[in-house]
């Protein structure tokens, strides 16, 4: 092996004036919302442990340093090619773009531009350069919308992760703390850059560092600790067999399922405190389980009842077996429609990973399967209602925003039977100040388009299933060929509406409101999107029932819909034209539909309370 260099660098040193490229064979950017959330939570959490608004910014130099991992570079013809670490560097670049955007108009800006782009001969280019990503990165950098149609999965993923970053970035770091955090990120966060001068050497290093056989995972270490404390040889063997079976199933279910299962299980059953987000606050059991659950359990053994050999055996044979099976059940329900657990899928599609803690919290190993399903349904419906209310009111559902409140819910619902569980969840919802009635101006915009797509899918599916038609929800949210998109009933032609809107901005605000939206196949918008309402109306009559309900013929020879309208009393009606008052009237219909779909009283009915 030839000469190899390893050097710890700050984020500033790593990215300023340096160009990184990625070989064609590993260009995919594959991080998910979970990894973005963890990155933001780790960085902002570490920063907030030290942040004090009363001291000068120069004190940030004394904050603790943070190690973000390593990257492996292959130097070829004076260019730096990333062999390992492009996921982190890409995500870090997206974070820097977000910080740049958040600083616009502030007097205390920290210059991050030079870490994102560099200029040569009047031409700007990104310091992390991948040709196919450049147009998307330019749009994000400029704060402009970007059309994802026809773009690769990697580019679409890149754009969505930036939106996830916007959601996950905590409010407490956006105000006065922002320049302090940006300083800390650039000067106190480090990565080790390992540089080789041939691809062979770079990949040898990569394979050596990623050889799973050389290090034990937290799960392996936890297993060793638990089995060591089982005295009976036969029980130890049986527990080991049980453990291996469950671990195999968890690993088969997905890459991160195994550690996520342990974190969700142990937090849901044992976490009693969570770290306060302030200077000097210590990590509590909730936090420690998230970062070092194997060490936490060893320290907390007496507290959670692990004192004798039989306790350790029962912990594997009963508790681990039970909660891992329930976690696998939830993983399946998050990936496909499982009858009775549909709301788990709905919540997953909003990226709400905190639901697993809540779902496991009331479960007990001696619950019958009927009781288990009832508890899971109750909690999943509770989460579904809470998310719908927040999204309807332009509120964040990001992990950092919701974490503390969900910790309280988890703690307060632990082990409850179905009826008291339903009452508790209903009580929590009753304390929420914002419901559907709180916002009559819900509209689609760049940041909530994905979430509103899901809400429209639920509204559309509800009308059809209540009218006796089969569910087509999965069709409405599919990302494949023939996917559905949000359709504006009014085309983007403000000049057609000058009798009601003097300013184009007023027209645009009303056009984007929920009452003026439908969910239709992408091909429909391409063919008919620019037409007037009167010209579109016959075509709406060939689409889903919510779209058809605009047309008078929908109310002829349609007994299923007529029964639903009569039974519900909802103000469905057709329109010969679609004016401002009609759009607002249609918005009321959508709100009333939402109140039926996401009704907190359903929790009590579900539990027979």
What's the short version?
The protein is an alpha/beta fold and 609 residues long.
Verbal overview:
- The protein has 609 residues and is α/β, with parallel strands linked by helices.
- Strands 1-8-3-4-2-7 form a six-stranded mixed beta sheet. A two-stranded antiparallel ribbon has the order 5-6. A two-stranded antiparallel ribbon has the order 9-10.
- The longest helix is centred in the middle third of the chain and has 27 residues, at 309-335.
- The protein has 27 helices and ten strands.
- It folds into three domains: 4-213, no CATH class; 216-437, no CATH class; 440-601, no CATH class.
- Strand 5 and strand 6 form a beta hairpin.
Provide keyphrases for this structure:
27 helices; 3 domains; 6-stranded mixed β-sheet; 609 residues; two-stranded antiparallel ribbon
Strand percentage lies at 5-15%
The N- and C-terminal alpha carbons lie at a distance of 71 Å
Strand order of the largest sheet: 1-8-3-4-2-7
The counted number of beta strands is 10
What share of residues is helical?
40-55%
Q: Give me the secondary-structure category.
A: alpha/beta
User: Could you list the spans in which at least 5 consecutive residues all have pLDDT below 50?
Assistant: none
Could you describe the largest sheet, including whether it forms a barrel? 6 strands, mixed
Mean of pLDDT: 89
Shape: globular
Task: Specify the number of helices.
Answer: 27
- Please, how many domains? 3
